[in-house]
Design goal:
single chain; mainly alpha; 75% helix
Length: 104
């Protein structure tokens, strides 16, 4: 049987790898995937403690988070496609279109 600390360690590693991916990468798609990895680490942590405490509330929250993440994925991927079509790159250094007062 796998212990609680093992699941917690895996959840923390997923979250940590996601944070490193967000900080270290320049590609907007890789940053998005790192954010999703962080979200899955938090979900695993919630499900682990729900199982440990025999409580269903965190599992319900996790299912809601997964449903929201699916909708968010569709929106974010469409934004990535629009940004790629306008700039022909997914590098975050290219995207300065949100700066105030600058005309692109």
């Amino acid at each position: 049987m796998i212990s609680l600390t093992t699941y917690a360690f895996v959840a923390m590693m997923l979250f940590s790898l996601g944070v490193i991916g967000v900080i270290a990468r320049r590609n907007i798609f890789v940053i998005y995937m790192s954010i999703e990895m962080m979200l899955n680490g938090v979900n695993l942590f919630l499900v682990t403690f729900a199982r440990y405490h025999f409580n269903m509330d965190p599992q319900v929250i996790t299912v809601m988070v997964i449903a929201i993440a699916a909708a968010e994925a569709a929106i974010f991927l469409s934004v990535i496609i629009l940004l790629y079509r306008s700039r022909k790159s997914l590098d975050t250094d290219v995207f300065n279109i949100l700066k105030q007062g600058e005309n692109s």
